[in-house]
Each structure stands twice: as C-alpha cells, then as structure tokens.
Amino acid sequence: MSKQNLVIVGNGMAPGRLLEHLFEATDSYNVTIFNAEPRVNYDRIMLSPVLSGEKSFEDIVIHSEEWYAGHGITLHKGAKVSKIDRAAKTVTSENGITAPYDKLVIATGSSPFIIPVPGKDLDGVLAYRDLEDTYGMMKAAKAGGRAVVIGGGLLGLEAAAGLRMQGMEVTVIHLMASLMERQLDPAAGFLLQRELEGRGIEVLCEANTKQILGTDKVEGVELADGRIIDASLVVMAVGIRPSVQLAKDAGLEVNRGIVTGFDLKTSDPDIYSVGECVEVGGMVYGLVAPLYQMAKVAAAHLSGPSDAAFQHVETPTKLKVTGVNLYSVGDFAEGPDREDIVLRNASAGTYKRVILRDNKVIGAVMYGDVADGGWYNEMLKSGEDVSDKHETLIYGQMFQGGGAVDPLAIVAGLSDDAEICGCNGICKGQITSAITEKGLTSLAEVRAHTKASASCGTCTGLVQDLMTITLGEDAAAVPEGMCGCTHLGHGDVRRLIVAKELKSIPAVMQELEWTTPEGCAKCRPALNYYLISDWPGEYADDMQSRFINERVHANIQKDGTYSVVPRMWGGITTPDELRAIADVADKFDIPTVKVTGGQRIDLLGVKKEDLLPVWKDLNDAGMISGAAYAKGLRTVKTCVGKDWCRFGTQDSTGLGVKLEQFLWGSWAPAKLKLAVSGCPRNCAESTCKDIGIVCVDSGYEVLYGGAAGLHIQGTTKLGNVATEQDVIEVVGALTQFYRETGYYLERIYKWADRIGYDHVKAMVFDDLEQRHAYYERFVYSQKFAQIDPWAERVAGAEAHEFSPMAEIKLEAAE
Amino acid sequence: MNVATKQWVAVGQLNDIPRQGARCVKNGEMTIAVFRTSDDRIYALEDKCPHKNGPLSQGIVHDGCVTCPLHNWVISLETGTAQGADEGATLSFPTKLEEDGSVLIGL
Ligand code: SRM
Ligand SMILES: Cc1cc2nc3c(=O)[nH]c(=O)nc-3n(C[C@H](O)[C@H](O)[C@H](O)COP(=O)(O)OP(=O)(O)OC[C@H]3O[C@@H](n4cnc5c(N)ncnc54)[C@H](O)[C@@H]3O)c2cc1C
Ligand code: SF4
Ligand code: FES
C-alpha cells in the first residue's frame, strides 16, 4: 500500500509530540513539515534559561537533524506557508514550495501581542517568543543599560529575571495592581514582587504605557502619568494571540482560535489542528500540558479509527526563575460559596492558600514552600471530599496522620495516579513501572523513556525522589549531580558560574545551594578548575582544593615518596641537561631513573623534604616542571622529522617544541597530551593523542580526540592547514573551547563524543573569526598560567608543604 | 588513648597550618598529621591511612574529614575511623588550642 502524505504547518512543541505518538503507532505516512523558523524543533519553554545563560540552544533541542532523517521527514526550514488550497489539497510556502497532502495538520501556534502604541516599531523593541527574540535580548544585554519589560506575567518576569542575570538594569511595567494576577492572588504577588525587587528589578504596577520614545532606536518609555523611563531595550510580553490567519484564509471555521472538535479535526475532516492556535470546547490554551494532550488525541485519529477525545484539565503554573518557588492551580477567586485556608510564615517568607468549595479543593496558591503543590492538585483533580483532613490540610501532606519527617515520605505517599510531570501528564505509576520494567538507573534514561521532567524540568526533584524510592539506596549512587553535595550536573554548574559571575568556591557553594558546608574531594577540585578557567587573572587558585600531586607539583607514589619529571621540550634534550639529571640523582640518592612513555625522564622515589633542593638544581640547569601530574598540558611527543628522516615532510620536532612552549602551564578539564609526526607513518603516535598533528607535503593535518589508556580510540580529523602558525592557532582555539566547556576529568575524546565532532569543527575550525577569538582567549589566560611552579616554590611559595611543623623529642615518659 | 599518661606537647602555631590543610609532626618513628579545618578546629591523626598507609596529611580536608590521596578513603578527623563502606581506623590524638594560638597535642 502506498503511503499517504501528511503535511504539517508549523514545527513547534505540539506537532513534534504528535509525530512521536504517530511513529509509535504507524509508519504509513510520508511526512513533510513547513516551519517559518529556520531550525529544528526545540523546547520553547526553556528559552528563559537560555536567556539567563543557564542553558545553551543545543541543550534545548528536542529533535535533532538525525531524528528527522531517521524518520524520513522532509523538513522545510525558514519556509512560512502562505496558502492552503483545499480543493487541490496542497499547501504553498512564501518561498515557493508546494506540497500535496492527504492529511494536513495546522500547528501555527500563536504570536505575541504588540500593543499599538507609538514607537512600537523602533529598533530595540522585541517580543519574547522564539530564539531570535532571545538572542536579540542577549545581544542588547551585552551593551548594558536599562531594559523595560512591559507585562508582569509569566513571560515578562522570566524575561526580566534573565536580563537582570545578564547584567542589565531592569524595570517591569505592569498594568494591573499585582504581578501575575491571573495565576497569583495579591498576597503571593506581593511576595514575588519583593523577591524580584531584592534582585534589583524595579517593579511598577498599575502603570500604563503611553508611548515608546526614540528617533530610530529605543531611548525610553513614557507612561500615561507622564513618567519617563530611559531604556535601550523594550520587551513586550503582554499576551499572545492564536495564529489563525492561514486557516481563516482557507475558509476553515475560526473563532478566537481555529475551531476543532474534541477529536482535533477542524471544519474540514482532512485537516487537523493542534497547539496554541486551537480552540477546543470553547477554550484556547497557552501551556504545553494541554497541547501535548491534543497531540496525543490527534495522533490517535491519524493512525486509525479511534475514540480518543480531548478533555479539559487544570494545569498548574510555575515560574522558571532560579530561586523563585511559586505554584498555582485552579480557581482562586473569592466568593461567598468558598472557604479559604491560609498559612503564612513571615520570617521564612512563605505563603500558602487552599480554596475549598463544598469541602472540595478547587484551587491552591503557594509561594516559597511549594512542596505540597502536587498533593493539592491531586485532590483538585479527583474531587475528593476533604472534610476529614480539614484541620490539617494546610500543613501539607507530611502532617497527615503525624507522618514521619522524611522528605521522601511525601512522594512515597502519593497514589499511583498522582501527576508528577505536569507538562507531559506523567503519573507516579508510569514512572515507577518504567524504572522497574526497563531497569532504568539514571535521570537521563527516565526522561528518555517516560518524558517525565523532560520539558520545563521543575519536577526533576520529584522524579529523583521516585528513583530513590524505587531503586532504594542504589539510586543515591546515580544522581546526575557532580557529587553528593549538589543535584546540579557539571554542565549546569559551569554555566551558572559564568551567568551568575561566581568567583570563589564559597560563592558557588552558597549561590548554588550546596548541601554540604565545604564540598568534598570530588567537587572541590572541579570547582577550582572551573573558576581558574572562567576567570583568568581574577580567581586565585585554591591549593586546598587540589589533589596532592597538583599541590606539590610532583606525583605521589605508593610509599609516600614522590616522582619528579622535568620538561624535555618535544622530547629533545642536551648533554648538559642529562648531566644535571644524573647529578641530581646522585646527590639525593634517587633510587630509580626511568624513561617515561612520554619521551622524558622520571626520577622516582624522591623524599618530600628533598623536593625543593631537587627542583632548585634542575631549575639551575634550565629545566622546569614537566607537569606529569597535571590536569593540563603533559607532553608533546615528536618524531625526528625532515631534519634527519628520509621520509620527513616538515619539521615535526621543531613544531612540537613550539607547541609545548605555547601550551605549557595551562590547566584543562583533564590531562592533555599532544604528538607531532613528520609523515603519515606516524612514529610519534599522533593518531591516538588528545591532539595530534601529522605533517604532510602540503602542510599539516590537525587531529584530535584520540585515546590510548583505559579506552582506545583513533583521532578524528579537525582539518588541514598550511603553516605552523595556523597549527598553533587552531590548537590554541581547540584547547580553549575544550577548557571552557569540558567537564572536570573529561578527556578530549569524551568531551567531543558528548558535544559532537561537527560542532567542535564548526566552532573552532570553520568559522575563522570565532577560531581567532578562542585563540585570543587562550593566549590571554596563558599570561597568568605560565609560571614555573617549581621556581615559585623554591623561591618560598607554599613553604609549609615541604617541611614538618615540628619534631618532638620527648623525655622518657615514665 | 591512655588518658593517665597524657602529656600536652606544643607543636607550633595555628597559623603554621593552612585552613583546610595539614602539617606533619615527627614523633620518633611516627608521623602525626595535624589538621586545621576552615573554622579553625584542630585535629591530630597518625599520618597513616588504615587502608594502605597513605599519608593522610596530603589529602583534601572537607566537612570534618580527610580524603586519602592514594585511593580516596574518607577518614573522620575526630575519631580516625573510615567513613562509608570502608572499615578501619587510624590513631587519633587529643588536641588543644591556646589563647595565644599555640597548638598542643596530647601524647
Ligand atoms: C610515568 C608514566 C609511565 C612510564 O613510566 O612511562 C606514567 C605514569 C602514570 N600514569 Fe600514565 N604514565 C605515563 C604515560 C602514559 C601514557 C603514554 C603516553 O602519554 O604516550 C598513557 C596512554 C596514553 C593516554 O593518556 O591516552 C598513559 C595513560 C594513563 C592513564 C589512562 C588515562 C585514560 O584517560 O584512559 C592513567 C589513569 C588516569 O589518568 O586516570 C594514567 C595514570 C598514571 C599515573 C599518574 C598513575 C597515578 O595516578 O599515580 C602514573 C604516575 C606515575 C608517576 O608518579 O610518575 N596514565 N600514561 C608515563 C609518564 C609520561 C610523561 O612523561 O608524562
Ligand atoms: C519564553 C517562554 C516560556 C514559556 N514557559 C512555559 C512554561 O513554563 N510552561 C508551559 O507549559 N508553557 C510555557 N510556554 C508556552 C509554550 O512554549 C507554548 O505553549 C508551546 O510552545 C506552544 O506550542 P505550539 O506547537 O502550539 O506552537 P509553537 O511552539 O509556537 O510553534 C509554532 C511554530 O509554527 C511556526 N509557524 C507559524 N505560522 C507558520 C506558517 N504559516 N508556516 C510555517 N510555520 C509557521 C512558528 O514559526 C513556530 O515555530 C512558554 C513560552 C515562552 C515563549
Ligand atoms: S600502567 Fe601507568 S598507572 Fe598502571 S602501574 Fe604502570 S605507571 Fe602505574
Ligand atoms: S592508602 Fe588511603 S585510601 Fe588507600
């Protein structure tokens, strides 16, 4: 049977989910998607963390290019559909692509409402809807100045918090008397306003915008009462309108949104609609949970006869501003038939309110302490009579039956059909059974299999609790956090260090809410590295957060003695250096002298007290530390190259020496080893190094991502360059990109496997401007790194490390 | 620890020891590691990990414990016992910090 053509207009979150359900059920469609945005499907909800700098675009992609290719989907990016011909059953885009359909899905989402005031078209006035808007705001923030955000709802406040984190002065203008008045009552709105003001965001309620000032770009905003606020950026976040024009022009029934039945069919039975553009049962929706339900229903009808029907449910609201906890669900308007129960804690700044009618929960508003949100929502949905727990209801679930004060108890006590992930409508039972049936052990796996916590992420803590309950203590060993001291993973911590400008270990631990007072031996060295790498010249290395090898610049051995490895640039040495090494070995009775696998000499078994004089003698002969202990540059191995070898094409030895002189001293996420071979015979083993260079007649091949330790992996080619200077620039740029984005202890090959070889190449090889910028940043940080640690210590630094504090000579005690 | 024969011996000044660090004191054949926490508490342990004799003085100090530099056992500074699943203990000595900053160990 030949396949039917399914065409989708719009590539947002709703149709993305529809396709996932559809492909699970059937492969009977050829799918073509038109998207006005020039990109794949991404998690629009997560634009705010991108704006604040806590995530990158790559982190929020839902469907990668490979996913489309794997399902044989034709995706027209940057192609806005301008016409639907229902008679011919075709759609046509503005850029002239026509596609025939058997079934059509309209998923055009909605567009931001722009208030029609003078100045709305000025340069510097943005809405907040897509990646362009987000990047536009980030760019404006770089220039500094003040941003005015018009609209104190969910989107406006996320924009304001993000812009503030990016360093702008921010004023929020809100027409109503309190913030987020549609989701919060005035008391919670007040607490929220106080929190935002505490972060330096100015909030003006009951303020009406009269006009936006400026000649060709924004200069300020004038309010109806005459006040003028200077601004270099204005963000309008006052609401959205379903995008219905296309459907209207095609003659479909349109009201506020595109009208569909509970089966999501429009007035034309071959045309479905899903997402924010839809009006179903007289309602339009602006949160993903109901849109995902639409996607599921539409997919069921598209894949066969079905009686699936859309049903209205209340969706709780949360604000995704780091550190602000609020939760609201249902109806909280006051009325004679309603009963309010309120609990406030002024010192903790928390507020809780549950609204009852006929002894049933119909709404809840919480600020600060939101742990019981899910529990109230469960009662709201089930409509159970709560008379029996009326007295203790407000104190939350832990109080019921005098329950134990175990945070896991809350989650353990939820019924199997309690909703955990609001966005995706995933219940507790679905998660626990997926964990046991599929043997899931990591958060990433649970996300992949159940979708729970995969959208806005605010339920991540609950999902982790469920994992602990289901898997027992084993789960404690597999949280995604960098160590037991934090839930945050390495990537989150790195981004937050930059976004929040955290410049010391105590600052990181405070701001990112470490659960231990001083961290542990896993997180402290990682944080120390991230801070060194992100704030060169500003952050002072914390010696107590380094492993002993990097603290005393020698490798500790099993008997507590040390090994000393001087640099031997590119593997080249001289009779004088060799004599000095021999003299040192004699003078200090060093038991073993060995040639290492890295083309240099190791002095093994040096007593700690002898380290300083050993280094002094080696320094005097012109040698510095070989950093054989460092998470940083180790060795650059070379072969003899064209000076001697009959096959040599370039000066591989000379280039190796130059590279080592350029890179030494730099700290990296993990050790960094290079090699330069004079021809493809590869005698320096360049093809299994972190970075390898193979000289060829026409120049140099730059390779990277090799490994030959616990894991063996050949390198991948980054590209060919013509001159030694090009090699140095590319290697510097690659190293810097790795330094800025690698996780602590992640070798280059693991890093590149994680972030993608194509991406690395695009960042540091193809884009010349960017390549140069990375190179420059590396050169800058080297200014603070190329200080020989041996010489520093011989001169007196960290002297306490090298001698005992006291020797006790006790008189005979008895 | 034998309280009866205890003798307090001055081994140096608080400021000789880095915060979250340690210094060694030689007592005949034995080496004692004297630790200082970030809030200036002082602890003394024999400088010998219960696992394979690793020099604890060279480890990372955190939250009242030290992580051994050789194989990452975590040892309590107060009691000298291994934390978590590992079993074993190293000798611990009482310490005193005088008003003038002198550090004393009870031997
Ligand atoms: C000295 C040396 C062996 C030798 O006698 O030749 C050596 C010695 C150690 N290696 Fe190595 N590796 C040495 C070359 C290598 C090589 C060969 C090379 O570099 O071409 C490799 C394989 C290449 C690679 O790195 O991919 C190598 C792969 C490892 C690994 C596995 C790394 C991995 O990511 O898979 C470890 C373990 C680790 O780092 O966690 C390791 C760890 C170690 C440690 C640091 C073990 C430790 O934690 O104590 C040893 C330190 C001894 C010391 O005190 O000096 N060593 N090690 C070599 C020093 C080279 C130098 O001049 O700096
Ligand atoms: C900053 C921000 C934060 C948010 N936070 C949350 C939150 O925390 N929780 C929550 O539940 N929801 C949140 N939302 C709302 C949520 O993102 C939307 O409800 C959801 O993305 C809508 O999905 P959709 O598929 O209907 O439309 P969209 O995702 O808007 O996709 C529509 C797509 O169709 C394209 N398109 C439009 N017309 C055409 C055409 N004629 N031809 C081709 N393509 C076209 C558009 O370019 C767009 O890419 C947030 C939204 C934003 C902007
Ligand atoms: S292979 Fe490396 S880590 Fe293993 S014993 Fe030899 S030097 Fe040590
Ligand atoms: S010697 Fe201390 S952990 Fe092995």
TrEMBL record, chain A:
<keyword id="KW-0408">Iron</keyword>
<dbReference type="InterPro" id="IPR041575">
    <property type="entry name" value="Rubredoxin_C"/>
</dbReference>
<dbReference type="InterPro" id="IPR007419">
    <property type="entry name" value="BFD-like_2Fe2S-bd_dom"/>
</dbReference>
<dbReference type="InterPro" id="IPR016156">
    <property type="entry name" value="FAD/NAD-linked_Rdtase_dimer_sf"/>
</dbReference>
<feature type="binding site">
    <location>
        <position position="645"/>
    </location>
    <ligand>
        <name>[4Fe-4S] cluster</name>
    </ligand>
</feature>
<feature type="domain" description="NADH-rubredoxin oxidoreductase C-terminal">
    <location>
        <begin position="317"/>
        <end position="383"/>
    </location>
</feature>
<dbReference type="InterPro" id="IPR017121">
    <property type="entry name" value="Nitrite_Rdtase_lsu"/>
</dbReference>
<dbReference type="GO" id="GO:0050660">
    <property type="term" value="F:flavin adenine dinucleotide binding"/>
</dbReference>
<keyword id="KW-0479">Metal-binding</keyword>
<feature type="domain" description="Nitrite/Sulfite reductase ferredoxin-like">
    <location>
        <begin position="557"/>
        <end position="620"/>
    </location>
</feature>
<keyword id="KW-0534">Nitrate assimilation</keyword>
<keyword id="KW-0349">Heme</keyword>
<dbReference type="GO" id="GO:0051537">
    <property type="term" value="F:2 iron, 2 sulfur cluster binding"/>
</dbReference>
<dbReference type="Pfam" id="PF07992">
    <property type="entry name" value="Pyr_redox_2"/>
</dbReference>
<dbReference type="InterPro" id="IPR041854">
    <property type="entry name" value="BFD-like_2Fe2S-bd_dom_sf"/>
</dbReference>
<keyword id="KW-0560">Oxidoreductase</keyword>
<dbReference type="GO" id="GO:0046872">
    <property type="term" value="F:metal ion binding"/>
</dbReference>
<dbReference type="GO" id="GO:0050661">
    <property type="term" value="F:NADP binding"/>
</dbReference>
<dbReference type="InterPro" id="IPR036188">
    <property type="entry name" value="FAD/NAD-bd_sf"/>
</dbReference>
<dbReference type="GO" id="GO:0008942">
    <property type="term" value="F:nitrite reductase [NAD(P)H] activity"/>
</dbReference>
<dbReference type="InterPro" id="IPR052034">
    <property type="entry name" value="NasD-like"/>
</dbReference>
<dbReference type="Pfam" id="PF03460">
    <property type="entry name" value="NIR_SIR_ferr"/>
</dbReference>
From TrEMBL, chain B:
<dbReference type="InterPro" id="IPR017941">
    <property type="entry name" value="Rieske_2Fe-2S"/>
</dbReference>
<dbReference type="Pfam" id="PF00355">
    <property type="entry name" value="Rieske"/>
</dbReference>
<keyword id="KW-0560">Oxidoreductase</keyword>
<dbReference type="GO" id="GO:0008942">
    <property type="term" value="F:nitrite reductase [NAD(P)H] activity"/>
</dbReference>
<keyword id="KW-0408">Iron</keyword>
<dbReference type="GO" id="GO:0046872">
    <property type="term" value="F:metal ion binding"/>
</dbReference>
<keyword id="KW-0001">2Fe-2S</keyword>
<keyword id="KW-0411">Iron-sulfur</keyword>
<dbReference type="GO" id="GO:0051537">
    <property type="term" value="F:2 iron, 2 sulfur cluster binding"/>
</dbReference>
<feature type="domain" description="Rieske">
    <location>
        <begin position="9"/>
        <end position="105"/>
    </location>
</feature>
<dbReference type="GO" id="GO:0042128">
    <property type="term" value="P:nitrate assimilation"/>
</dbReference>
<dbReference type="InterPro" id="IPR036922">
    <property type="entry name" value="Rieske_2Fe-2S_sf"/>
</dbReference>
<protein>
    <submittedName>
        <fullName>Assimilatory nitrite reductase [NAD(P)H] small subunit</fullName>
        <ecNumber>1.7.1.4</ecNumber>
    </submittedName>
</protein>
<dbReference type="InterPro" id="IPR012748">
    <property type="entry name" value="Rieske-like_NirD"/>
</dbReference>
<keyword id="KW-0479">Metal-binding</keyword>
<keyword id="KW-0534">Nitrate assimilation</keyword>
